[in-house]
């Protein structure tokens, strides 16, 4: 699994399916993001196993955004790029995730959500913005064979 910091997956020239959800209500942001993602991904025909994993990734990323956002709301973006689902959460916290991803042998309690993202996503990273950051994860649209 690759973790890439400060760059997004490349965009394709055509307009793939995408969705955007502002998360201004911090108290209910995680629940709203999960509900929105399930509805959108189901409508796009994403396999239920992939949706289940995507909802876990979204829960972790939105939880981190709401815990660390001090000056404003977060946003959830969903995008299909070829055979990949891209999940991106934008917030106004300028801290990178680079130092919060625990090592596999770490006993630190912080960063466990990103360890879950690392386990479920094909790749993930953080892109710095002028007024915050965008943390993203890429997942295969095909369910993994057991």
List the helices and strands and how they pair.
Elements: E1 2-5, E2 18-23, H1 29-43, H2 48-68, E3 74-81, E4 84-91, H3 112-120, E5 123-129, E6 132-140
Parallel strand pairs: 1-5
Antiparallel strand pairs: 2-3, 3-4, 4-6, 5-6
At CATH level 3, the topology is Heat Shock Protein 90
Order of helices and strands: EEHHEEHEE
Average pLDDT works out at 82
CATH class placement: Alpha Beta
Q: Considering the protein shown, what is the CATH homologous superfamily?
A: Histidine kinase-like ATPase, C-terminal domain
Protein model, in words:
- The chain has 146 residues and is of the alpha+beta class.
- The protein has one domain (2-7, 18-140): Histidine kinase-like ATPase, C-terminal domain (Heat Shock Protein 90), CATH 3.30.565.
- It contains 3 helices and 6 strands.
- The chain has helices at residues 29-43, 48-68, 112-120; strands at 2-5, 18-23, 74-81, 84-91, 123-129, 132-140.
- The chain has a 6-stranded mixed sheet, with helices on one face.
- The chain is globular, with a radius of gyration of 14 Å.
- Mean pLDDT is 82; it is low at 1-7.
Describe the structure in brief:
By secondary structure, the protein is of the alpha+beta class.
Main traits of this protein?
single chain; Heat Shock Protein 90; six-stranded mixed β-sheet; 29% strand; disordered N terminus; alpha+beta
């Amino acid at each position: 699994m690759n973790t890439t910091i400060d760059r997004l997956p490349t965009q394709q020239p055509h307009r793939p399916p995408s969705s955007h959800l502002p998360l201004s209500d911090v108290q209910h942001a995680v629940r709203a993001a999960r509900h929105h993602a399930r509805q959108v991904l189901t409508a796009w025909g994403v396999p239920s196993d992939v949706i289940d994993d995507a909802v876990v990734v979204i829960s972790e990323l939105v939880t981190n955004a709401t815990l660390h956002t001090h000056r404003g709301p977060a946003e959830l973006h969903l995008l299909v790029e070829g055979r990949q689902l891209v999940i991106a959460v934008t917030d106004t916290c300028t801290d990178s995730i680079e130092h919060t991803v625990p090592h596999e042998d770490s006993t630190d309690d912080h960063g466990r959500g990103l360890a879950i993202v690392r386990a479920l996503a094909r790749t993930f990273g953080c892109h710095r913005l002028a007024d915050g950051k965008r943390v993203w994860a890429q997942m295969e649209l095909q369910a993994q064979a057991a």
